[in-house]
Amino acid sequence: MSQDGGGIDLDTSLGYLLKEASSALRSAMEEVLRPLGMTITHYSCLELLAQRPGLSNSELARGAFVTRQSMNVLLQALERDGFVTRPPEAPVGKALPTTLTPRGRSSLAQATTAVRSVEVRMLAGMTDDEQAAALRALRSMVRSLRDSPR
């Protein structure tokens, strides 16, 4: 929307619309997770561990889109509060595999229901075919950005 016509038209920019959608999704997720005493990163960490038990700090950080340092702080808090367990020493190498406790699973179940309600609301105006096409398009965009040279 620049005056000289050489900039990006925000009304038709897919990148801008993706950022706007991401921001709206984040706000909606924060809204439903807050009453559960959870942040999006907290939820993401628990969800990753439920689907991929034993992930290391580095793997969890990558999956939750945060730094290793931020994930380490979160894992210490989750361990202290009884949501996850980690062995005192790494069984192999330096990585401490993390697993959910029963409390972590129970908390995750509530959060998953809340987050799923946001996703259902987000997709309410789309048919199954439109949802499938959006999924394919987004995966293609991610692949293009990750695989293409800068």
Q: Based on CA inertia axes, which overall geometry fits?
A: globular
The proportion of residues in beta strands is: under 5%
Helix amount: 55-70%
Low-confidence stretches: none
- Pairing-aware structural class of the strands and helices? mainly alpha
**Can you write the helix and strand succession as a string?**
HHHHEEHH
Physical arrangement of strands within the biggest beta sheet: 1-2
Biggest sheet architecture: 2 strands, antiparallel
Nearest-integer average pLDDT: 91
Contiguous helical run count: 6
- Radius of gyration equals 19 Å
What is the first-to-last residue Cα distance?
25 Å
Give me the count of strands. Answer: 2
Describe the structure.
With 150 residues, this protein is mainly alpha-helical. Helix content is 63%, strand content 3%. It has helices at residues 14-33, 40-51, 57-64, 68-80, 102-123, 128-147; strands at residues 84-85, 99-100. A two-stranded antiparallel sheet has the order 1-2. The chain is globular and about 60 Å long. The two termini are 25 Å apart. The model has no long low-confidence stretch (mean pLDDT 91).
